[in-house]
Amino acid sequence: MSNPLLAVKAPLLSQEAPHKFYRNAKVQAFFAAMLVGFGLVCVVMQSGQTPASDIDMAALGSMNALRLPIPRTQAFNPMQPAKAQQPMCGISGTPPRVLLPPGQSVASAFAARNMMAMAEPPKEGPVVTILGATGLVGQELLELLPRAWPNCKLQLFASSDKTLEVKGKKYEISAASKLEGPDAPKGDIAFVALDDAFSAKYCPILLDLGYRVIDKSNTYRQDPNVPLVVPGVNSDLVTDDVRLVANPNCNTIPFCLAVAPLQRKYGLKGATVSSYQAVSGAGIGPLDEFLEKSKKGYSEANRIGTQWDPAAYAGNIVPHNGGTDDSGFSSEERKLVFESRKILRLPDFDVSAQCCRVPVAVSHYENAWVTFGEKVTPEMAMKVLTDKSQAPFLQVKDGPVGEGISSIAALQNRDDTLAGRMRNDPRDASGATLCMTVTADNIRQGAATNAVRVASCWFPSKDENLQAKCFPPP
């Protein structure tokens, strides 16, 4: 079997069995793109000159966006495991250089792409596989997918054959081992919600079966050849020739959604982030244990709290125990640092993080001190962040008090990030540093919703709030 990861950038039309999903609107768009491209070539050949706007774009006619190689870290950094600094799949080559037509701005190209994405999708939905369907994220995908593609066909897999009931509806789950046989089902999109080891095993298998894969684990996030994507920030990287995308960590996604709109306008220099993360981020097992121990512990008439286990989550706040390395930083802290650099395309982004686990079931909460490239007042930030055309998937609360910003409020807005409590940091005399609070549902916005929006770059969503928005890179 050939290595499917080598084909991550293979063109869609080179697949063995083109899907019916593309046979109408997308095929028409393809032929229209060919005509436009042919005309452009003729103009360039006649003039003998290169148009003034010469940028890296994956495909002109389909309005595919800028695709910049992600710089690879050369020197060892104690906050990052050595193995994460090496590419995890052997894909080589750089994106093709395509000329932007004279007179067309980058912004207009991206606006056109967004309009194309929101075009009426075909009635026949994609074939969607969820690997890890019985987990927290997998169950949330079962609720989101009918919103995005009402006519999609679901294929669900977990560790073994079983029946899963979610909100009164029963689903048949197949053993993941069935994906390894000669009769493995094929499809269009695969959402992989597994731990690192199983993702490393099954992502290549799914790619070899012809799927476009979105992986939730940490396996490919620091691979320079695999896009790490937050729609509304850098979804321009999800072009038709991309077959594998990494879904960022649940504390990185809301942070990037909150700062990227301001980065595009004012530049971004550095940040210090303190996160307070819900127990559900540790998985369904620790969450169930936390809920059971909380029920028992709070039933005791002990106002001091000595009934709690000092090393457990229930009734407690603990340093994040996610794989602390020799530098003293945990994996959750390293993820926020290195993932935000990659997503925001700032390899020298001066960012540090400290994370802890708090006795909350769902929703992560972050306090951030963010330094921009110039003076930014809370009023200036509010003007940008309340503009949906500049800051999608974000709800902003005005004022320094923080009304409306809480972990429970995030559960009432599960597919969006909440931001607010903005005020200038008095330690920065230049006025370029803002203090701000960010919170989001870590299972939905921080995982499942983000993944569905990534997939909407390939298969337009019927639900507008699940459709990715595309911006030129900063």
Distance between the termini: 40 Å
Number of domains: 2
Class from helix and strand fractions: alpha/beta
CATH topology of the largest domain: Rossmann fold
Number of helices: 10
Helix content: 25-40%
On the 0 to 100 scale, the average pLDDT is 82
> Which outline best applies?
globular
Radius of gyration over all CA atoms, rounded: 23 Å
What is the chain-wise order of helices and strands? HEEHEHEEEEHEEHEHEHEEHEHEEH
Beta-strand fraction estimate: 15-25%
Q: What's the CATH H-level homologous superfamily of the largest domain?
A: NAD(P)-binding Rossmann-like Domain
Task: Tell me about the largest β-sheet.
Answer: 7 strands, mixed
> Which parts are unreliable, with pLDDT below 50 for 5 consecutive residues or more?
1-27, 40-99
- Biggest sheet strand line-up: 5-6-4-3-7-8-9
Q: Which CATH class of the largest domain?
A: Alpha Beta
Query: How many runs of DSSP E, i.e. beta strands?
Result: 16
Question: CATH architecture of the largest domain, please?
Answer: 3-Layer(aba) Sandwich
Give the topology, please.
Blueprint lengths: L24 H23 L6 E3 L40 E3 L6 H12 L9 E5 L4 H13 L4 E6 L3 E5 L2 E7 L13 E4 L3 H13 L3 E4 L28 E3 L5 H15 L1 E10 L6 H15 L19 E2 L11 H13 L6 E8 L6 E9 L5 H8 L8 E4 L9 H5 L5 E8 L8 E8 L3 H12 L19
Parallel strand pairs: 3-4, 3-7, 4-6, 7-8, 8-9, 10-12, 14-15
Antiparallel strand pairs: 1-2, 5-6, 10-13, 11-12, 13-16, 15-16
Helix pairs in contact: 3-10, 5-7
